[in-house]
Design brief:
The protein has 18 helices and 12 strands. The longest helix has 40 residues. About 3% of the residues have low confidence. A 4-stranded antiparallel beta sheet has the order 4-5-6-7, with no helix packed on it. A 3-stranded antiparallel beta sheet has the order 3-2-8. With 513 residues, it is an alpha+beta fold. The radius of gyration is 38 Å and the shape is extended. Helices cover 47% and strands 12% of the residues. Strand 4 and strand 5 form a beta hairpin.
Length: 513
């Protein structure tokens, strides 16, 4: 209405500021109140203090934080720890044991039982010569993949072929891939640490580093993504290369190494120094020691240094020492490493174990309260199962690639069903100290209805429908052999009642009526 009244223009308004003392004091108080709120209502972690260390840098993409030089340095430290640190080597063994165990066993689960049996038989034969060099079987290769993944943070699997054309695989470490020198200008744009990416950020190839040729020049080869399986677990979006699982505890491992070396040097020094004897004239001089060797009397006395040496030798072993007037004896004792130092070692070791997700009690079994011990193993079991599923996915991809060739290249497998790619990969056994107790609790929960089979098979990465089908198949086979197997929830299959036993003659029924 004001705009229409003034011809479409905004009306000219006059604002009067009251600068009286009362209003000025109120405005200043309000301003100070807002300043006080800004200073007190905050996140303390976002404000720097001289009493605390600070994190340098600003948030940026993972490609700039985990550069090629950073990754290679972390891999160098991790490999050195695996080779020279007993704790890290033990963690590698535990990791390999509970992620792949004796090998991830693949079982075909298509709807054709006959084809499943033939596929399993052929797959077992392929597993023995799956390696390009024919040095390792498939179980050993999966263990090597798991261990390399833990130390390097990644591992590459290449598709190759044998002389007969049969698919084979080759396992390579991460240092065999990098950005060519002529592509350094594109680093961070179209290539990231040896990974060629599309404009949308999708990997389209990997630059493999070959050995030097006859001219002494390193050759690079771009491998397409369908020829490589890159096994790694990114911790951030936009991360194209893996980092060692030890990357957050590298400094703790170095501190432990330095402390051990320093304490060992101190222990050796203390072991070399025994007893120091002092007389009225001080310690035995080098001249007196030489005189004792040749039996020469000391100047001004009728005794030789040998007599004095024998005197101290005879006096030292006894508990009650009788020394000459003015003589004294000092004995160096080493209390290192102290209790506090050993506790600090344990604290650092626990930090290392926690940093990689492995319970300390698995690396160094110790006496603990039963519930705490079971809880630690349950958390470790969940962690290992999650990592085992990553390798299980890789194994399934290998199955699909190899059997996809076999159903055309092997005459016995050409009658493959439509769902030939369905497989069941059994994970390794979880760490547990109460297998019988947990099994009894699971059966009780199933019978009482407080749990179901999805919760039983799901954490193991299994489908309860497939497990029921397998159980039914086993029970039918057992009946053909004259055996009876326990069924669901520990209950055996119900036997059909004999109808003759329930039949009652009609005459008896009429008599009762």
């Amino acid at each position: 209405s004001d705009r229409r009244r003034h011809g479409g223009r905004h009306p000219r308004r006059h604002v009067v500021y009251d600068l009286s003392r009362e209003h000025t004091e109120v405005s200043v108080i309000a301003y100070l109140r807002n300043v006080w709120r800004a200073l007190t209502n905050r996140y303390d972690g976002a404000h720097w203090s001289r009493r605390r260390s600070r994190a340098y840098g600003t948030p940026q993409a993972a490609r700039y934080d985990a550069t090629a030089s950073t990754r290679l340095e972390l891999v160098t430290q991790a490999r050195d720890a695996e080779a020279n640190d007993a704790t890290v080597n033990r963690m590698c063994d535990i990791w390999e044991t509970y992620t792949v165990g004796t090998g991830l066993h693949v079982q075909s689960s298509s709807n054709d039982a006959d084809w499943n049996a033939k596929a399993r038989e052929w797959w077992v034969g392929w597993e023995r010569y799956c390696d390009e060099t024919s040095l390792l079987g498939f179980a050993s290769l999966t263990g090597l993949i798991s261990r390399t993944w833990f130390i390097d943070g990644e591992v590459f699997i290449l598709w190759t072929k044998g002389q007969s054309g049969t698919p084979r695989i080759q396992v390579l470490e991460g240092h065999n891939f990098g950005t060519p020198p002529e592509r350094h200008k594109d680093e961070g744009i179209s290539v990231i640490d040896g990974v060629e990416i599309s404009p949308s950020g999708r990997p389209i190839g990997y630059w493999r580093i070959h050995a030097k040729d006859a001219a002494g020049k390193v050759r690079y080869e771009l491998l397409p993504t369908d020829a490589v399986i890159h096994v790694f677990e990114p911790s951030r979006p936009g991360q194209y290369r893996g980092l060692p699982f030890l990357y957050p505890v590298i400094n703790d491992l170095l501190d432990l190494k330095d402390l051990r070396e320093l304490e060992m040097a101190a222990a050796k020094d203390a072991a070399e120094i025994t007893n120091v004897y002092k007389t009225e004239t001080g310690e035995l001089s080098s001249q007196e020691l030489r005189q004792s060797r040749f039996g020469i009397p000391t100047a001004g006395t009728s005794t030789t240094p040998a007599d004095r040496t024998a005197y101290y030798r005879d006096a030292a072993p006894g508990r009650n020492l009788v020394l000459k007037s003015g003589d004294s004896i000092e004995q160096f004792r080493s209390d290192r490493p102290s209790v506090a130092c050993r506790e600090h070692w344990r604290y650092l070791t626990e930090r290392v174990c926690s940093g990689v997700g492995i319970a300390y009690v698995m690396v160094y079994p110790d006496s603990m309260q039963g519930t705490v011990y079971r809880g630690s193993l349950d958390m470790a079991s969940s962690m290992f199962r999650a990592r085992s599923l990553v390798i299980a996915d890789v194994v399934q991809r290998i199955w699909e690639r190899v059997m996809g060739w076999a159903r055309y290249g092997v005459p016995a497998l050409r009658d493959a069903p439509a769902n030939w790619y369905n497989v069941m990969i059994l994970p390794p056994r979880a760490p547990n100290v109460d297998v019988g107790c947990n099994a009894a609790a699971t059966l009780a929960g199933l019978q009482s209805g407080t749990t179901h089979y999805g919760l039983v098979y799901g954490p193991q990465g299994l489908d309860w429908r497939q497990q029921f089908d397998a159980l039914s198949e086993q029970q039918n086979y057992a009946r053909e052999k004259g055996l009876i197997l326990p069924g669901i929830a520990g209950l055996g299959p119900k036997e059909e009642a004999d109808p003759k036993e329930d039949e009652t003659p009609a005459e008896e029924i009429k008599a009762d009526q």
